[in-house]
Design a protein that fits this description.
By secondary structure, the protein is an alpha+beta fold. The protein is built from 3 helices and 6 strands, in the order αβαβαββββ. The chain is elongated, with a radius of gyration of 15 Å.
Length: 92
């Protein structure tokens, strides 16, 4: 997979901002078909940093309802990337 299709968008919340500043971990929403190796290659090619570890979360879509019926949101996949202490991703 190409690097731009693997990583959909960075996840910027209070928790991920704290994690990026204190623990050097960054969170990204990734393609559901992507593997850890795909994510590692994409991070290295897009940001030019050294990756120390990757944790992946598969998040099931939530069910929603209104007066017309039930449906569910799409399943998503997140990657939490630990970067070498000397490197930073300036996006955050």
């Amino acid at each position: 997979m190409e690097a731009t299709t693997v990583i959909r968008k960075p996840i910027v919340t209070e928790k991920t901002t704290w994690s990026s500043s204190m623990q050097n971990r960054y969170a990204f929403e990734i393609d559901t078909r992507a593997t850890k190796d795909d994510v590692k290659r994409a991070i290295i090619s897009l940001y030019g940093v050294r990756v120390q570890g990757i944790a992946v979360q598969n998040r099931k879509g939530q069910s929603r309802r209104n007066r017309f019926g039930f449906w569910s949101t799409k399943d998503t996949k997140r990657a939490i990337v630990k970067v070498h202490p000397d490197d930073r991703i300036e996006l955050f």
